[in-house]
């Protein structure tokens, strides 16, 4: 082991340590590089990675595209093709080999086209054509579907095949147009305008099958993007494969990776619809049963808490009887006590009857008798007052007392008490309960 202060020429390094140190220097010093050269000796093993050499007239360097980066490439290199690579330098220490890890790859001369595309993207984005808020939902189970694509391409056949397999009850309006070449943008715009002018289509599929960047260039055309954004009918873009994203995809109301997927997105499957309908019916039935059960339980609980007036009157009578019995018990307990006090006073008076303090004892006896009589009267008045209050409460709670004052209870033919004149239908029969007896009446007129 050597300290960091040891001069490098005195250190003894292993081969791996030397390669690791070189790797650190290269990866730190060349974290971002752009290299132009010719593609040679392409290798695509089963791992999904891509290996090739990048050469010029004087040198060559190995390059690798990892599988995740390969899926994002808009252009895949071909043998002998001149390309521009963006990436970073990495060293494989076990073999002492350095290589370029490729992050982006474009053909030579494509840089200016790419810049134009990015500039158009920024312009349209600033105008709000890619704003998610302007995207409209697709109609559910459309009957008329418009398609803007080549009438001889595989995309149209894929769309028809998927639609017929999912739900054959549809009508397809085809607006044939070129989807490749210099005249394709204008043809696509005319097809979209024709479908909008016809007005029968509920949704439009616009696209084609996969292809190279040059094949899909028409769907990056400004006039095509603006035509999609201006369509009064929702548009589903179906351009290329999942790795291909065009400006038309961003402007459309919904993007599908392929024409087949576009057909799947706009047309629900008949079997799935039937299963969903059955599931919803079962959920509705369960919800109705549960709601009915809850309402029945609430009615039962309310009926258990609701007491008939006669039962409330019986409870009040029982309470009154209980208070009266308690009063009687208190009186029975107090009377012997007062009688005993009276006897003690009488005995004391007799004991002192012949003594010199008789007049004074007589006076005390009179006072005690008076206090005992006063206490008994006071206690008796208190219990009589409580008894009278209980009787008044009993009378106030009795519905018969309300009827005695001239009021009446009106019930409909179901026996329910009416509180609103509007609840009694005309010509219906009512029962009126008075303080004495009942009356049967018929509704001939209602007043608010």
From TrEMBL:
Function: Bidirectionally degrades single-stranded DNA into large acid-insoluble oligonucleotides, which are then degraded further into small acid-soluble oligonucleotides.
Record-level GO BP terms: DNA catabolic process
Catalytic activity: Exonucleolytic cleavage in either 5'- to 3'- or 3'- to 5'-direction to yield nucleoside 5'-phosphates
Entries under Pfam families matching the protein: Exonuc_VII_L (PF02601), tRNA_anti_2 (PF13742)
Residue stretches making up the Exonuclease VII large subunit C-terminal domain: 129-441
Gene name of this polypeptide: xseA
Species assigned in the record: Magnetococcus marinus (strain ATCC BAA-1437 / JCM 17883 / MC-1)
UniProt-recorded name of the protein: Exodeoxyribonuclease 7 large subunit
Keyword flag Cytoplasm: yes
Subunit structure: Heterooligomer composed of large and small subunits.
UniProt keyword list: Cytoplasm, Exonuclease, Hydrolase, Nuclease
Family: Belongs to the XseA family.
Signal peptide: none
Cellular-component GO terms for this entry: cytoplasm; exodeoxyribonuclease VII complex
Keyword Metal-binding belongs to the record: no
Annotated PANTHER family: EXODEOXYRIBONUCLEASE 7 LARGE SUBUNIT (PTHR30008:SF0)
Domain OB-fold nucleic acid binding: 13-105
Top-rank taxon: Bacteria
Gene Ontology molecular function: exodeoxyribonuclease VII activity; nucleic acid binding
EC number: 3.1.11.6
